[in-house]
């Protein structure tokens, strides 16, 4: 693919994310106009709305893999590793949160499981290490606990979508740490230790 074509494709995807976030029912024509391309150009890259959603899902999958890499810092404690994992994935989830609703309606069965599998696997690995060191609760196997963490993050993202809460990641990280058995003051201190901020006050 030539550089001009690659630039067009990237611009269309970026605009599609923005337009679908503002209006999940946005049409192909509306996305093409917003991207500054004619409909034929958009269809040259994406034969239809489903192909566009699949491309956004592929982009999200790559972003998840990059987030896992970015969250891996040698020397982190299990609690710090889980907090970084959460904050990095929160950025991806926030960017692609509209895909969650649209994907369940339009994409193939199992698409979300495939998308989230690398994150679940990494989360389970961190939880296993923390359970071995008695940092996290061990009443559930790490794979089951990781699924619970994933569900909590999805619900928190939905809360942001509904305007019930605002967060850039640290709040979600505190919630996840508490959810796996870390005391609230310790969870706040852990998140502060990786974000360079003072621990949040509160009960």
UniProtKB/TrEMBL annotation:
Residues 6-64 form the HTH tetR-type domain. InterPro entries: Homeodomain-like_sf, HTH-type_TetR-like_transc_reg, HTH_TetR. It holds the Pfam family TetR_N. Keywords: DNA-binding. Signal peptide: none annotated. Residues 27-46 bind DNA. One of its GO terms (molecular function) is transcription cis-regulatory region binding. The keyword DNA-binding applies. PANTHER family: HTH-TYPE TRANSCRIPTIONAL REGULATOR RUTR, POSSIBLE TRANSCRIPTIONAL REGULATORY PROTEIN (PROBABLY TETR-FAMILY). This is TetR/AcrR family transcriptional regulator. It comes from Spongiactinospora rosea.
């Amino acid at each position: 693919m030539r550089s001009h074509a690659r630039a067009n494709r990237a611009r269309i995807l970026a605009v599609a994310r923005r337009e679908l976030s503002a209006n999940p029912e946005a049409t192909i024509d509306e996305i093409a106009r917003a991207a500054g391309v004619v409909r034929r150009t958009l269809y040259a890259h994406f034969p239809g709305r489903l192909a566009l959603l699949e491309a956004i899902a592929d982009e999200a999958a790559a972003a998840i893999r990059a987030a896992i890499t970015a969250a891996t810092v040698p020397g982190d404690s299990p609690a710090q590793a889980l907090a970084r994992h959460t904050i990095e994935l929160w950025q991806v989830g926030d960017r692609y949160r509209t895909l969650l609703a649209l994907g369940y309606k339009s994409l193939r069965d199992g698409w979300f499981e495939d998308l989230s599998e690398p994150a679940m696997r990494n989360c389970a690995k961190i939880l296993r290490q923390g359970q071995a060191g008695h940092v996290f609760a061990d009443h559930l196997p790490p794979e089951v606990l990781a699924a619970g963490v994933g569900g909590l993050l999805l619900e928190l993202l939905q809360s942001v979508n509904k305007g019930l809460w605002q967060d850039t990641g640290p709040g979600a990280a505190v919630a996840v740490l508490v959810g796996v058995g870390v005391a609230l003051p310790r969870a706040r201190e852990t998140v502060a230790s990786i974000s360079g901020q003072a621990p949040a006050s509160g009960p």
